[in-house]
Every structure is written in C-alpha cells, then in structure tokens.
Design a protein that fits this description.
EC number: 4.2.2.-
Mean pLDDT: 83
CATH class: Mainly Beta
Helix content: 10-25%
Number of domains: 1
Subcellular location: Cell membrane
Structural class: alpha+beta
Strand content: 25-35%
Membrane topology: Lipid-anchor
Enzyme class: lyase
Radius of gyration: 17 Å
Largest sheet: 6 strands, mixed, barrel
Order of helices and strands: HEEHEEEEEHEE
CATH topology: Barwin-like endoglucanases
Low-confidence stretches: 1-22
Number of strands: 9
Shape: globular
Function: Lytic transglycosylase with a strong preference for naked glycan strands that lack stem peptides.
CATH superfamily: RlpA-like domain
CATH architecture: Beta Barrel
Length: about 170
C-alpha cells in the first residue's frame, strides 16, 4: 500500500513539474477586474516591451506548497517555478526581470494577471523574488524586458539586435 501511495505522489509531482495549461499559443483577450477594463497588448507590441517600475511578489501556497491555484491560463504552479503576473502582456510570455538596486536578473514565465495594487508593474513568485534579492523587502524597482511571447508553434522570440544595436 505504501508503495502505491509513493508512486501516486511521485506521479502527481511529475505531472505538476512544468507550468503548462490547456490553451493554444497565447491569450490576450480584454478582461475586467474591480470595474477596471484591461486591454492586453498584441504580440507585435509585446515582443518589443520594456519598462521600469515597481515589482512585488505573491504566494498562493497551501498545504506545504503542494497545492496551488490555477493561473489565468489554467496552469498549475509549484513553489519552485519562476513565474510572474502582468496586467497587459499576452499570456504566456517569457520576461527578463532585473533588480535595478543590485543588477541581479531572472527569466520568468508570465502566466497570470496582476498586480492590481498601486503602480506595480509585475508580481513575481517567491522563488523569482529570492533569485533577484528582494524577497525580504517585498518591493523593488525593476526593469522588465520581453524575450518571447506564446508557446509551441505560436512562440515568437524577440528579434536579435544587429549592426551596433539597431534592428
């Protein structure tokens, strides 16, 4: 019996190991939160997105971090994932977040919506916040740069710069 329980637990952990949901390509539909309507960027706009602003971190862990909620695109996430939430980027996308107070950077998968508090531009998972050194402070100033948008055959990467930084 114990072997069966161990096998089921291992299977559950493996099935949740990567944050992937049931959607095709990307999601950029208009949505409303607390009476405010948000119009996410097109893929063409998002691929060149770069911004500086305040980052925070969020945690929805329950039961020792092994049970988490779904993201805006239906992905299950675990405490070891480096993920983020953004109000207007298409979901999913990969961003590079750089803490401007110490220069540390992390790549995160943006797969949720938010933050909806003040002037914050991005919410990071606890692991991502620890990687760039602001977990204990709660907030920091960051630069956010999109590296790619979408998944699978729909994935688009930011074009490489050539000729002295020109596109």
């Amino acid at each position: 019996m114990q072997k069966i329980l161990s096998a089921l637990l291992a299977l559950a952990v493996v099935s949740c190991a990567h944050p992937r949901g049931n959607y095709k390509g990307y999601k950029n539909a208009t949505y409303t939160v607390r009476g405010q309507t948000y119009h996410p960027m097109s893929v063409d706009e998002a691929i060149y997105y770069q911004d500086v602003g305040t980052a925070s971190w969020f945690n929805e862990s329950k039961f020792f971090g092994l049970k988490r909620g779904d993201t805006a695109i239906g992905e299950k996430v675990m405490p070891w994932h480096k993920i983020a939430a953004h109000k207007t980027l298409p979901l999913p996308c990969v961003v590079k977040v750089t803490n401007l107070s110490n220069g540390k950077s992390v790549k995160c998968r943006v797969n949720d919506r938010g933050p909806y508090i003040g002037d914050r531009i991005i919410d990071l998972s606890p692991r991502a916040a620890k990687k760039i050194g602001f977990y204990d402070q709660g907030l920091t100033t960051v630069e956010v740069e999109v590296l790619s948008v979408g998944d699978g055959k729909y994935k688009r990467k930011k074009p490489k710069k050539w000729f002295f930084g020109l596109f």
